[in-house]
Amino acid sequence: MRAFLKKLLPLTSVFAVLLLAGCERPPMDSIQHGYRGTGMVEIYNPRTVDALAENNAVPFPLPQAPTDGPRASQVYKNVQVLGNLSTAQFTRLMVSMSSWVAPNEGCTYCHNPANFAEDVKYTKVVARRMIQMTQHINTDWSTHVSNTGVTCYTCHRGNNIPQQVWFKRDNTPMGADFIGDKAGQNEPASSVGLASLPNDPFTPFLLGAQDIRVGGTTALPNGNKHSIKQAEWTYGLMTHMATSLGVNCTYCHNTRSFSSWEGNPPQRATAWYGIRMARELNLSYMEPLQGTFPAHRLGETGDVAKIYCATCHQGVYKPLNGAKMAQDYPELQNYHSTQNASPKSGATKTSTTKSGTTKTGETNTDAVHLGVKVSQR
Questions:
Q1: DSSP string, 323-337
Q2: Is 304 exposed, middle or buried (0-12, 13-18, 19+ CB in 10 A)?
Q3: What is the rounded distance in angstroms from the CA atom of residue 219 to the CA atom of residue 367?
Q4: Structural element, H or E, at residue 44
Q5: CA atoms of 115 and 98, how far apart (whole Å)
Q6: What's phi and psi for 285, nearest 5 deg?
Q7: pLDDT per position as a tens digit, 204-239
Q8: Does 327 lie in the same domain as 302?
Q9: Considering the domain boundaries, does residue 205 fall inside one?
Q10: CATH number at residue 75
Q11: Residue 138 in contact with residue 333, Cβ under 8 Å?
């Protein structure tokens, strides 16, 4: 028996080490942001926070350019966006964009060096539309980005393509006919924390407008029409959002009742607008560009890369740790004063007004106590 225990001890030790390998070692930092005893606490790993610091460092801005002088559209050909800027402002922004998106390739990533005015490269066509999208966010989505705003660097961070984008998943395989639609479950993906949750919770909510709900407020069958599958999609989206921001559930929800708006931190309202902002950007800006991108830039189902929380946040609760980088680039602030061409036909605009009512008529019915109006969708 003693010999058996001696052999068992090393195996037990190895098992214990493997088991603990999935845990984060102390020390950990905790920050209370709710009433004592309610569990409203954020837990941070200081080593993870330090590792994210470099990726969220903001590059130094170029000196501001004079606003006087000839306009860019008067000097350069085929300037469809930013034509009202001075040539100095226009040049400053182009140089900045090159360093943000294509630091290795430079201007020729988007432009034909033999003729900068040509639109022969798809990257130039896409960049033009992305400038419009950035200006639209800064102008019409202050309910989410506040006065911090965004620039190309917020998402790209020196990469041609943002490191955090999503594509539709091919969930056709069912495993066996009698099992039915797996809905992407039991195929662990980093997008849902390697859980058995559906690996594409984004198509229903960030392209579609399905209810983001775990359950109804009444027992079946009295009005509760939300299925377990919808709840799993919701948990998948919430897992992505928490991971993208480097927070836990209590950052937006109160611990007494996750579904209730009463007693929630104001971040929940900001997140509510963020979901709708991502949806509108995907539908109005990204999806219409699908035919512009070459095949090697598309996903496994032939769709274009799309935006979700991680695209901007990249592990921190405020992109670039809240640095107001956009204020150094007024060229990206005003959507309406710098446009020579209107958005492509078919693009829908559902920006939110100060009162919380969107231009499509969607109104706020849930969080009056937060000073905003939000629908139950």
A1: --GGGG-GGGT-TTT
A2: buried
A3: 23
A4: strand 41-44
A5: 17
A6: -120, -45
A7: 999 999 888 776 666 666 666 677 788 888 999 999
A8: no
A9: yes
A10: 1.10.468.10
A11: yes
The model carries a pTM of: 0.81
Q: Are residues 342 and 284 in the same domain?
A: no
C-alpha 326/C-alpha 318 separation (Å) is 14
Taking only the tens place, the pLDDT of each residue in 300-310 is 899 999 999 99
Amino acid of residue 152: C
Distance from chain centroid for Cα 373: 22
Question: Which amino acid is located at 41 in the chain?
Answer: V
What's at 166, amino acid-wise?
W
Indicate if 195 and 298 belong to the same structural domain: yes
What does the pLDDT average to over 101-118? 95
Same domain? 189 vs 280: yes
Number of other residues whose CB lies within 10 A of the CB of residue 263: 15
**For 43, which DSSP code?**
E
CA distance 151 to 138: 9
Mean pLDDT of 355-371: 33
* Residue closest to 157 by CA, chosen among 243, 50, 55, 60: 55
